[in-house]
Design a protein that fits this description.
The complex is a heterodimer of chains A (about 400) and B (about 425).
Chain A lengths: L3 H9 L1 H32 L10 E8 L6 H14 L3 E6 L10 E6 L9 E8 L3 H5 L3 E4 L8 E2 L10 E5 H7 L9 E4 L5 E8 L15 E7 L5 E8 L4 H15 L3 E3 L3 E2 H8 L1 H35 L1 H9 L4 H38 L8 H25 L11
Parallel strand pairs in A: 4-10, 6-10, 7-9
Antiparallel strand pairs in A: 1-11, 1-12, 1-13, 2-11, 3-4, 3-8, 5-9, 7-10, 8-9
Chain B lengths: L1 H14 L1 H29 L10 E5 L19 E2 H10 L4 E13 L8 E8 L2 H6 L3 E4 L4 H5 L4 E4 L1 H8 L8 E4 L2 E9 L22 E4 H6 L18 H6 L3 E8 L3 H20 L10 E4 H7 L5 H31 L1 H9 L4 H37 L11 H27 L3 H5 L2
Parallel strand pairs in B: 4-9, 6-8
Antiparallel strand pairs in B: 1-10, 1-11, 2-10, 3-4, 3-7, 3-10, 5-8, 6-9, 7-8
Helix pairs in contact in B: 1-13, 2-11, 2-13, 2-14, 11-14, 13-14
Classes of the chains: A alpha+beta (about 400), B alpha+beta (about 425).
Organism (chain A): Dokdonella immobilis
Subcellular location (chain A): Cell membrane
InterPro entries (chain A): ABC3_permease_C, MacB_PCD, Macrolide_Exporter_MacB
Chain lengths: ~400, ~425
């Protein structure tokens, strides 16, 4: 393929070439970075909570007034819940993963340690929590019923035994011997002993930097007159059980409010609504951008074909085959696109640098740009195909016609 | 001449419908993407109370641990302790001042057909109303005396009054909350807040508060905040220990009517903290802040990073669309060299040719703007569907409609300048020779 004549033809319409090149360059920069952001969001959304989300739901109960007996109500409610048909297990918990509200504290290895060794979310639960959350105990044992301490809200939690996630155990004891060790919750004694380790349970906060550091604390501690129940239904029976639970609890005690029942699936949806929206919006931007760029190439190529009809005819008359003409326009497009892509690669990294500096985003991985090259080469070739085919059909006789 | 050129422009655009459609769609898409994101960003970040936003200041005191700062970058905590809030209220050194926190309470309606329900409201001092100026429909705020007397009074939001009393004047009646009767002193009218800027600690786009009650009365009833509470050391057991602790859970706003008053209040805060240091509190270096409304909104990133990134990308997309338009206009005008040559030969000046083609670009821009406006409407609809909490900030107003169309026309005329200039340089002789 003779590139020289293509180059000299391009040099005669520098501005159009630059315009297409700039479009391709900016498209590459935007598409690479947007795809990278989308990828990050999808990774974020795919993080497992560690729970059985499909069958689990939760609801709040809140009584009124100073005379309300929250402890008795919770005991009754749990007894009611656990014997309902279709309920696999139920527990009381101050929070659930992905709900964005909960408790956290620092854990230390020494008393009066200046900076805590690890931060953890705290789930204040009873001995049925592991089964209800659907987490897997990978070492040690569950709480015994007698280990659930009565605590008044506002008093310090001083659990003798706790169960932690594997991530937290490894953070506290990197040698992997966390089971049976004692740690300080807060800065003062007494210590709490790690009696069990579960494989995974997320914190309630989606933007937490240590999202898998969670601790189960065995305590019976109503928040004022309020409590939150987590219920796991038998597989496939969640929706019917939800209705039943709401109805039974409302009937059992009228001097309190049963809050809206939330499934864990809804909670996941709400927790990741922002990530989902960002991914959808950026996908729309990418598609619109690719469309505009492709249409721009079609428009410009059509114009060039129209402008050069006589020259094409002349070449055909001088013996060039139809595929020669087709290849001419394809090569021309390849050259322009490649020049644009080279500039675009620089732009893409510059944009990524700006994102890193302004928003502490991670660096754009190197492979996005080569993938972008291949995609835009393909887009350019597809876009130019129509006009190039039209060019190849120009009959040689055009050369002999005057305008 | 303008209307004649307008006609010529329309005719020329109709002659190449596909090329014209490509340009109009390109501009429309670019404008819609940038205007959708810009509208959200503009409404999110816009000054919620422009006539006094520089007078309202958010109080931050750094009572955090000597070993760790509250934020990693050293900024002081975003709330204050109970004891500091009460000390500042008692000192009363600002022109207006209110400590406040968020509270969720069960409401037990008189009307037995209504089931009891939970409601989110706010605990504050009466100056809250003077500072943030919510409109009253009936009655008014409670008095300073009622604050001092720990009285059980309440101001209801419009929706709550609608729900409990069918929207009637309920001033003087009572509402039962958590088994205690509160006397209604006022009912708010529609309070159109884009963001709940006076409390950003749980996100700026939560639902509006449904009731307001005196801080002093709520503390008597040992009501804890439903919002955030952070402690750097354990508070000890019981309610009194909690009130006395270094846990932060209260927001504190002051109104300072002049820069001189601001400077006075700053030095008052410094001397207060230095006084507390003598008691063994405030182990960190002096780090008080008094940000005004807009500074506080920027500090708490009310305009989220996602929205900023989306806006940046959308404008980059608009640039691509405009470059695209430049290319297509260039192609179009170059093909009309013959026509231009003829007009020039018949006596049209370059200036006339220039304005003719610039008007043609303007027509493309205007059509793109109209399409863009329609697409922006759709885009905002999509934003409302994707982000349920942004319903207050994803709306077109007249300013944004004007900006949209103006942006489309101006940017497409700019895009037309180079192709037009090229078109004007056509030599009449070269075109007429053949």
């Amino acid at each position: 393929m003779e590139i020289r004549p293509i180059f000299s033809a391009l040099m005669r319409s520098k501005v159009s070439m630059i315009l297409i090149g700039v479009q391709v360059a900016m498209t590459l920069a935007i598409v690479c970075n947007a795809l990278f952001i989308i990828g990050q969001r999808l990774d974020h959304m795919n993080r497992p909570s560690g729970m059985n989300e499909a069958d689990t739901f939760y609801l709040g109960s809140s009584g009124f007034g100073q005379g309300f007996d929250a402890r008795a109500t919770i005991r009754e409610d749990l007894a009611t819940l656990r014997q309902l048909p279709g309920v696999a297990d139920a527990t009381v918990s101050n929070s659930v993963p992905m709900s964005e509200g909960g408790w956290s504290t620092g854990l230390s290895l020494q008393p009066k340690q200046k900076t805590s060794t690890a931060d953890t979310a705290i789930y204040i639960v009873d001995d049925r929590a592991l089964d209800t959350f659907g987490v897997n105990l990978i070492a040690g044992r569950n709480f015994k019923p007698e280990e659930i301490a009565d605590v008044t809200f506002g008093d310090r939690l001083q659990p003798a035994s706790i169960i932690v996630t594997k991530a937290l155990a490894d953070k506290l004891f990197p040698d992997g011997d966390a089971l049976g060790k004692s740690i300080y919750m807060g800065e003062d004694p007494p210590t709490s002993t790690i009696i069990g380790i579960v494989d995974r349970l997320q914190q309630p906060w989606m933007s937490s930097s240590s999202i898998e550091n969670s601790t189960f604390v065995p305590a019976f501690m109503p928040y004022g007159n309020s409590s939150r129940y987590l219920v796991r239904a038998e597989p496939g029976r969640r929706d019917e059980v939800m209705k039943l639970v709401e109805q039974k609890l409302s009937e059992s005690n009228t001097s309190r409010i049963i809050g809206k029942v939330h499934t864990m699936e809804e909670t996941r949806g709400e927790a990741y609504a922002g990530d989902r929206a960002m991914a959808i919006i950026l996908t729309a931007v990418i598609l619109a951008l690719l469309m505009v760029t492709a249409l721009g190439i079609v428009g410009m190529a059509s114009f060039w074909v129209a402008q050069r009809t006589r020259q094409i005819g002349t070449r055909r008359a001088l013996g060039a085959s139809r595929s020669d003409i087709l290849r001419y326009f394809q090569t021309e497009n390849f050259i322009i696109t490649t020049l644009g892509l080279l500039v675009g690669a620089v732009l893409a990294y510059a944009f990524s640098l700006w994102m890193m500096q302004s928003y502490q985003s991670p660096r754009l991985p190197w492979y996005y740009v080569p993938i972008g090259f291949v995609c835009l080469w393909a887009l350019g070739q597809l876009a130019v195909l129509g006009p190039a085919m039209r060019a190849s059909r120009v009959p040689p006789a055009v050369a002999t016609r005057s305008v | 001449m303008f209307s004649y050129y307008l006609q010529l422009g329309m005719r020329s655009l109709r002659r190449n419908p596909i090329l014209t459609a490509l340009m109009v769609i390109g501009i429309g898409l670019g404008i819609a993407a940038s205007m959708t994101t810009l509208t959200v960003m503009h409404l999110m970040g816009s000054d919620p109370i422009p006539w006094k936003s520089d007078k309202l200041h958010y109080v931050q005191l750094d009572n955090w641990s000597a070993d760790n700062s509250y934020y990693d970058d050293g900024r002081p905590p975003d709330q204050v302790t109970y004891r500091d809030a009460v000390a500042l209220m008692e000192a009363g050194k600002a022109d207006k001042q209110s400590a406040m926190f968020k509270l969720s309470l069960p409401i037990q309606p008189e009307n037995k057909e209504l089931k009891p329900f939970r409601s989110l409201g706010r605990v504050a001092y009466t100056d809250f109303f003077g500072m943030f100026e919510p409109p009253f429909k009936y009655g008014g705020p409670w008095s300073h005396d009622q604050d001092a007397g720990h009285e059980r009074v309440v101001v209801l939001g419009k929706d709550m009054n609608e729900k409990l009393f069918g929207g009637q004047d309920s001033v003087g009646r009572t509402v039962r909350m958590d088994d205690i009767d509160y006397t209604i002193v006022g009912v708010l009218d529609d309070w159109k807040l884009r963001s709940r800027y006076y409390d950003l600690t749980n996100g700026a786009f939560e639902d509006p508060d449904e009731f307001f009650m005196p801080f002093t009365a709520a503390i008597d009833l040992k009501q804890r905040s439903t919002g955030n509470n952070s402690c750097w050391k354990s508070s000890g057991d019981g309610w009194d220990a909690y009130l006395d602790s270094d846990c932060v859970w209260i927001q504190m706003w002051v109104q300072l009517d002049s820069p001189a008053r601001l400077a006075e209040y700053k030095s008052f805060l410094d001397s207060y903290v230095n006084e507390q240091k003598k008691l063994g509190r405030f182990p960190r270096p002096l780090n008080n802040r008094l940000l005004d409304v807009n500074e506080w909104m920027a500090d708490q990133e009310v305009v989220s990073r996602d929205v900023q990134v989306q806006t940046g990308l959308a404008f980059a997309f608009l640039v691509v669309c405009l470059v695209n338009t430049v290319g297509l206009l260039l192609a179009k005008f170059t093909r009309k060299s013959g026509e231009i040559g003829l007009r020039r030969a018949l006596g049209a000046s370059r200036r006339e040719v220039f304005s003719q083609f610039l008007i043609e670009s303007g027509v493309v821009g205007l059509s793109g703007g109209v399409l863009g406006l329609a697409l922006t409407g759709l885009g905002l609809l999509a934003v409302r569907a994707l982000y349920s909490e942004y319903k207050t900030v994803a709306h077109l107003d007249w300013t944004m409609i004007f900006v949209t169309v103006a942006l489309a026309v101006v940017s497409s005329v700019l895009a037309g300048v180079y192709p037009t200039w090229r078109a004007c340089r056509v030599q009449p002789a070269a075109q007429l020779k053949i």
